[in-house]
């Protein structure tokens, strides 16, 4: 996994946009020199800016609600996994057998698999299959331990399966694809309109075009980043949900300080 420095996580969108903004400013200068600035600033042009701002606000309001919900999931998932581990540990301490030890080892391996799953090294169907495989281990415990242990594990097993399905849905589903399409079209048209806009003096024109282009493109990239808070495949860029609860659980099980 690529680790991005903490400062880089904060500025990665800005850094990725700098070449684009530089290109837009060069194009604006060329349009000015060639006399291609044929549009005068009017109410219709400012309406296009207002429409773009409204749609960006609509999109970010939608993804923020999903993002805030997603923030709780890793913590809840780690708690459910640890609760299953506690019950498996108690079963093993209460009546240690080959079956209880096998279940305890199986569950520790499953917890480690979740870290790989978040980074797309393990497929969702494999994780769900292992969660279901837990039933075979529980079946071997029924005659060896109290039923309350199995009941508690089954409850947490259902919670884990629900959270895995929810995370998979968030990862694979983008928020309002048609909304992205119209905002992207408006962004291109607006930037092209800024290139054709006649403003004097030149330095003021370059400043306004640069700032407007930066704001629109930055917000568009930010929304796409927030739309998938579980995208750890390309490294932690700062907009992903924190996996610290799961990592702390793994460290405790591994006996790390």
Feature tags:
single chain, 257 residues, mainly alpha, 8 helices, 0% strand
What does this entry look like structurally?
By secondary structure, the chain is mainly alpha-helical. It has 8 helices and no strands. It has one domain. Helices cover 78% and strands 0% of the residues. The longest helix is centred in the N-terminal third of the chain and has 52 residues, at 43-94. It starts with 5 loop residues before the first helix and ends with a helix.
Chain-wise SSE layout:
Elements: H1 6-34, H2 43-94, H3 98-118, H4 124-139, H5 147-172, H6 177-196, H7 202-227, H8 244-253
Compact summary:
This protein is mainly α and 257 residues long.
| Overall number of strands | 0
Largest sheet: none
Helix/strand/pairing category = mainly alpha
Q: State Rg.
A: 26 Å
Helix content percent band = over 70%
Number of helices: 8
Molecular shape? rod-shaped
End-to-end separation in angstroms reads 23 Å
Strand content: under 5%
Mean pLDDT: 85
């Amino acid at each position: 996994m690529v680790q991005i420095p903490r400062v880089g996580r904060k500025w990665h969108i800005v850094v990725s946009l700098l070449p684009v903004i530089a290109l837009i400013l060069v194009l604006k200068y060329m349009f000015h020199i060639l006399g291609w600035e044929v549009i005068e600033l009017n109410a219709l042009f400012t309406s296009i800016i207002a429409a773009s701002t409204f749609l960006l606000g609509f999109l970010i309001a939608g993804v923020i609600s999903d993002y805030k919900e997603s923030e709780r999931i890793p913590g809840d998932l780690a708690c459910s996994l640890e609760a299953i581990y506690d019950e498996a540990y108690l079963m093993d301490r209460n009546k240690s057998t080959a079956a209880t030890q096998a279940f305890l080892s199986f569950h520790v391996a499953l917890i480690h698999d979740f870290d790989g799953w978040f980074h797309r090294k393990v497929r969702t169907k494999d994780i769900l299959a292992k969660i279901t495989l837990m039933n075979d281990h529980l079946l071997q415990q029924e005659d060896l331990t109290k039923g309350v242990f199995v009941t508690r594990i089954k409850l947490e097993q259902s919670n884990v399966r629900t959270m895995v399905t929810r995370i998979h849905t968030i990862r694979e589903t983008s928020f309002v694809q048609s909304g992205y399409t119209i905002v992207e079209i408006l962004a291109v048209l607006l930037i092209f309109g800024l290139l054709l806009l006649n403003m004097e003096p030149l330095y003021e024109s370059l400043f306004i075009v640069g700032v407007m282009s930066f704001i629109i493109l930055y917000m568009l990239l930010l929304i796409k980043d927030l739309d998938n808070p579980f995208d750890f495949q390309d490294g932690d860029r700062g907009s992903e949900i924190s996996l610290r609860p799961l990592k702390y659980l793994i460290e405790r099980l591994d006996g790390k300080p």
